[in-house]
Structures are given as C-alpha cells and as structure tokens.
Amino acid sequence: MGEAPELTSITRRKTVRPLVAAWMFVIVLMATGAIWLSLSDDVETAPEAAPTHEANAPSGENISIALADDTGHGTVPISATENSVPVGEEQPVHKGLSLVKAPIDGLTHKGANGFLPVLGPDSRVAWKEYARPVDAAGQASDDRPKLAIIVTGIGLNSRSSNLALAQLPGEIDFGFSPYGRNLQVWMDKARANGHEGFLMIPTEPVSYPENDPGPHTLLAGAPERDNLKKLDWLLSQVTGYVGVINEMGSKFTTSEKDVMPILNNLNGRGLMVLDAKSTRFSVVGAAARRISMPRAINNLYIDNQLSAAEISRNLTVLENTARTYGVALGVARAFPLTIREIEKWARELEARGVDLVPVTAIANRQPIR
Q1: Which of 55, 137, 159, 265 is the most exposed place for a label (fewest CB within 10 A)?
Q2: What is the CATH number of the domain that holds 263?
C-alpha cells in the first residue's frame, strides 16, 4: 500500500449555511472594492535596497553608489502605469521657452508599431531639430561651466510628472518611460514648457530576470533581430525625443556585440544617446564615439539615497565636476522630494557661476574613460 499524501488542510468538513455564505460574499466584495479604491490613486514608490554599482566621475575616481535598482531608476513598478493618466490642475510656476510641437514634418516614418524617427531632408536630424536652443545668455557665457540634468520616469506617475512640469526649469531634460500611458500628451506638455525629452530604453541588468525592466527589455546574447524588433516597438511609443537613455543595463551595456547594432540603428535615425552608466564597464560612450554618434554620459546619480541631504550633496558634487571639466551631467528620478530639491538648487546656480543647460548643449563634450 502506497504512502498517503500529506494533508494540506483540515480534513473535517464543516457545513456552511447559505445565509452565512451570502454575507461572507458581500463582505469580500466590499473589502475588494475598498482595496481597489485605495490603490487607484498614484502612489509614489520609495527606492528599494539593491546591490552597489559604480559610476565613473570625471575626476577618474570611481564613486560607489547604492542603487535603488540597476541604475537608480525604474523603481516605479510597471503596474503603476495603469493609473498614470496625465490629469492634474497644476500649472507651471515658471515661464520658459516653448519648443516646437512634435512630430516635425520629415522626421518620422510610419512603422509597424507607430511613428519612428528617421533622418530628414537637407541633413536634418532629430537630436538637433527637437533640441532646446541655448539662449543668448548661454551663448555669451561659453567660458562658464555647463551642467545638465535629466529627470527620468516621466509618464509613469501622473502626480510626480505634473509636479516636474510645474516646478522644474525648462533647461532640465525629461526621460520618458515607454511603459507610461498617454506618452504623447506628456511629451507635448514637456515641450510646451521647454523641456527636451529622452526615451528610456530598458536593457538587461546583471540581476535579470529578478530585476526586470519590462517586457521589451533588450537582452545580452539575444539574436540581433529580436533586440531590433523590441527597439522598433520602444521607439514607436512617442515622438519628439532628442535621443535615448538606457534604463538599467549593467549586463547589456558591457557587451559591444549587443550594443553596436542598437547604436547603429539609433544613429541612422538621427538620435543622440545618453549613457546612464549603470556600470563603470559600459561600452556605450566609447562605441558611440567610434561611429560619430552624438552622446552624453551620466556622471552621477543624484538621488539613489532618497534624502534631502544626499540630494543636495550630490548636486554640489556635480557643480564641482562641471567647474573642473567644463561640463557635467546628473541623472535623477521623478520623485517629489528630488523635484523640490533640484528646483531649490537651480534657483541660485547661475549666481554661483554655473550654467544649467539642456543635455544636447553638452553633446560630445565629456571625456570618455
């Protein structure tokens, strides 16, 4: 006789009366409705603890950074996009330069998944045509240090995205998640307030699949055709961006074999690449330079530790980097605390002798190590 299976529940059966069962059903429905309502509002997600990664500072020293995820970005779960409808009454508190609305004629082509960026007539390229012009004051102060900042995760959370639009100066770039809803609405709002946009491209981290950037993640070692097919979908989610920035990617961005087909495709579309530098072993910057692709490189993640003191300290580090090397770039997330701290810091930056500029203004000006 075989061994009896282990019992996983109490074997004694109790009879449930119909009236009691009906009340239980009603209670469950009410509880479910209450939980659904509580989750229907956008909720800001705090960063989770994760392994330490390194990014290169222009001084040549490696700065050890405790990342919220592989890059310090993408801590808002994909499921949060279900509630990310761009509604809100907040109006921008600053007046800035309004950029031309996207798409620009001749710079897009209808693909299988939507409009894709392409090279335009008369050598027009998206990274220049969609760029925020440097104003006269900026052009007159070419000898002053230049500092660019990009705030990522725009479009995932309507509250934080509206806050960024309302409070941040137009010189600050926005990184748009391809998984956000109504992305073109967000892009149009951003450009109307002077902000350049970068599209976030999910790339494989060393911790994949435990740490998963999403269903269209570019994977190291995958067939080139598969990654390019995913890239086609990603690039089709919105128009008007000057370039792309990798999200996560501590594994993918170290593989030149995987990176080069992506960069060649993007360069052929007239786009700029921003290396988020999720690992100090990233080859993106050097590879882009070899094919004469416009590029920028993250020097420091601003808010991996989500505290006002740490954000302020990192902004000061970036200022000093800009003074030393002429240019610097920082990456931050669209958290309310981060947005408020950057807005306060930016008010006095010019008085401290540093110009806040869009990312395109420092293209190809950073050292690659």
Answers
A1: 137
A2: 3.20.20.370
